[in-house]
Specification:
With about 425 residues, the protein is an alpha/beta fold. The chain has 2 domains: about 130 residues, Tetratricopeptide repeat domain (Serine Threonine Protein Phosphatase 5, Tetratricopeptide repeat), CATH 1.25.40.10; about 200 residues, 3-Layer(aba) Sandwich (Rossmann fold), CATH 3.40.50.150. About 50% of the residues lie in helices and about 15% in strands. The radius of gyration is 23 Å and the shape is globular. Strand 8 and strand 9 form a beta hairpin. It is built from 19 helices and 9 strands. The longest helix is centred in the middle third of the chain and has 20 residues.
């Protein structure tokens, strides 16, 4: 059985992949219930968010149901790792025939995450009879066929999207990019690297922002050199979908101890515990590092690409300032030497070439300022970094020391620790402390 890209189950033991883009007709006209749902998710109010979705569904009556809103709320529940609740939300619409395309796709995705692949396939097959020219339906149907190990028909579904989509509009370009990417994943899993590379390149052509990470897939197959960094669109999509269950999944299934390990390394290197530092948390996520380092800081700024992540970090209350955007831009904006401490816990794994990062960091840190970080360990890479088996960047010790020396940092410590597991195996990472000279 091949294992091309499909959605990672909510209780899986690895980082998830970026979620599919929402169906084009899914946007609810009245987004108040959805806004409320997003706010509860950002605040970490898991039970309240589920109850809100259930209460909203309870008010729907035949003829007054809104399939677009149902699909949007169901996707939120799926993002929280609650596919069974998503199924319960949409099931009444399916039963009375009022579910729209987006709701059917969300229902099928939830069924697949619950291991009910044949039911998902049946639902999407029915949807394809109703609208056989819908790219959203065909893409979802192809994914369902892959999960059911019907690879030839899945390839046929994706190829049909390529025939139907003209690429004349943004949604059509997105459909082409997605279909090419799925074909690339499928052929790669079958060791047809030339075919896979052709489709990954075509996906990039239709989506220059590379939301799906095609450049990383090409490098992984040795069909191209490693990119200098993961695309911002890819990282944003990855963590926007992951944010609602990030804390519980990382600290539970992945046994994540990154912030605590970095804090211990910083203390051992001499970081003061008197709360004196103006600090920046680069790639702050939901705020786990902010919680660990807050006692050391007189001020703390969090930066992350993902709006859902920064919303959760804001709700946590550990930060004085939250910035949603690129970390290099955040470091470059504002006065020089304005920070005394920079934290990058599992952030450099999305950067390959660290020279631009260290250059911006050196300008933003005051002399004597601290840099505490982690990155996955590479034994040998010609460029000093490589794409690892989990499609994240890994760096060599020599490269990290070279970057430090070239940009005016003293390396105080550079140890190795397992900050989390991946597929039930420990992931070795460098944990470093440096000071700006």
């Amino acid at each position: 059985m091949i294992s091309p890209h499909v959605d990672t189950p909510a209780d899986g033991d690895s980082f998830p992949e970026p979620a599919l883009p929402p169906a084009a007709d899914d946007t609810p006209l009245a987004d108040d219930p959805l806004t409320r749902m997003e706010a509860l998710m950002a605040a970490g109010a898991r039970e309240a968010a589920i109850a809100h979705a259930e209460a909203e569904a309870a008010t729907w009556t035949a003829g007054r149901r809104t399939p677009g809103l149902a699909a949007a709320l169901a996707r939120c529940l799926i993002d929280m790792g609650e596919p069974a609740s998503a199924i319960a939300l949409i099931a009444p619409l399916v039963e009375d025939g009022s579910a729209g395309t987006g709701a059917l796709i969300a229902m099928a995705r939830a069924l697949g995450l619950c291991g009910r692949h044949q039911e998902a396939l049946s639902l999407l097959t029915e949807a394809s009879f109703l609208d056989g020219r819908s790219a959203e339906v065909l893409l979802a149907l192809g994914n369902a066929r892959l999960a059911a190990d019907d690879v030839p028909r899945a390839i046929g579904d994706f190829e049909r999207v390529l025939r139907l989509a003209t690429g004349d509009t943004a949604p059509e370009q997105a459909a082409l990019a997605e279909a090419h990417f799925r074909l690339g994943e499928t052929w790669s899993a079958m060791d047809e690297t030339a075919r896979a590379a052709r489709h990954f390149r075509a996906s990039q052509q239709n989506d220059p922002a590379d939301r799906r990470g095609a450049a990383i897939r090409l490098a992984e197959m040795d069909a191209a050199g490693p990119p200098k960094r993961a695309s911002a669109a890819y990282v944003r999509a990855l963590f926007d979908g992951y944010a609602p269950r990030y804390d519980t999944h990382m600290t539970g299934a992945l046994a994540y101890s990154g912030p605590e390990t970095l804090r211990a390394a910083a203390e051992a290197a001499g970081l003061s515990v008197d709360g004196r530092y103006a600090a920046i948390d680069l790639g702050c996520g939901t705020g786990l590092s902010g919680a660990a380092f807050r006692p050391y800081c007189r001020s703390l700024t969090g930066v992350d690409l993902s709006p859902r992540m920064t919303a959760a970090a804001q709700a946590g209350g550990h930060y004085d300032t939250i910035v949603t955007g690129d970390l290099l831009t955040a470091l470059a904006d504002g006065a020089a030497a304005r920070f005394d401490l920079a934290i990058a816990c599992d952030t450099l794994i999305y950067l390959g070439d660290l020279a631009p990062f260290f250059s911006c960091l050196a300008a933003a840190l005051a002399r004597g300022g601290w840099f505490v970080f982690s990155t996955e360990k590479s034994e040998a890479a010609d460029a000093g970094y490589e794409i690892g088996p989990a499609r994240r960047f890994r760096h060599t010790e020599a490269y990290l020391r070279e970057m430090a020396q070239a940009h005016g940092f003293e390396t105080l410590s550079l140890g190795v620790a397992a900050l989390r597991t991946e597929k039930r195996q420990p992931v070795e990472s460098f944990v470093g402390t440096m000071r700006r000279m």
